[in-house]
C-alpha cells in the first residue's frame, strides 16, 4: 500500500518513511500541502500522514481540499498538542491525530488501524461491484465513472466498454472480442464501430487523449485499460 507523508521537515519525512518501509509500505513524499495534492492526483494513495504547520499550503487547507474529492484515510501530525487543534483537524476530516514527538510504534499502530478500518469498512475497492485502477473508478451499483474523484459522463455503450476493460485491467481485448461482448453478436467488420467508441471514451477520461494514461492500444492486438 502507498502512504503519502507530508511535512516541511525533510528529516521527519525521511524518518517516518524508514519506519513504514520496514513494515512493507511504499512511501510517497511531499513537503507542503500543494505538493501533497499533486501527489494524490498522480498516484494511488491509500493513507496520508499530514503535518499542520507548513509553507505555501498548510495541512488544514490541504485536508479541506483533499476532502472535497476523496476519503483517503488521513492522520494529522503536529507539534501542537492543544485540544483545539485536535478538534479542528478532526472536524475538517482527519481520521486521527498524533503529536510530535511521537513514538514510532504508536504511529505504526495508528497507520495499521486506519488502513484496516478503511479496507474493511470504507474502501470502495473491497466491493465486488466497484472496479478501480489508479484514479479511474467505476461504481457499477451507482453506474458512475470517476477520474481522481471527478465524475465523467459516458453513453451506455461507452460505459459497457470501459467497464469490461477496467474489470479486466491489464488484459488486452481484441476489437472482435470487444464487439462481441458489448453487442452480443458477431461482426465481420467491427473496427470502425469499436474505434470510434474508444476515441470518445478517451476524450472523456484522459487528460491527453493522444497520450492516454488508462485506455491504451496494443498495436496489432487490441485495447486494454492499464493496471496501475
UniProtKB/TrEMBL annotation:
CDD domains: REC_OmpR, trans_reg_C. Residues 128-227 form the OmpR/PhoB-type domain. Keywords: DNA-binding, Phosphoprotein, Transcription, Transcription regulation, Two-component regulatory system. The modification 4-aspartylphosphate is found at residue 51. The keyword Ubl conjugation does not apply. It is found in: Cytoplasm. Residues 128-227 bind DNA. This is Winged helix family two component transcriptional regulator. It comes from Cytobacillus firmus (Bacillus firmus).
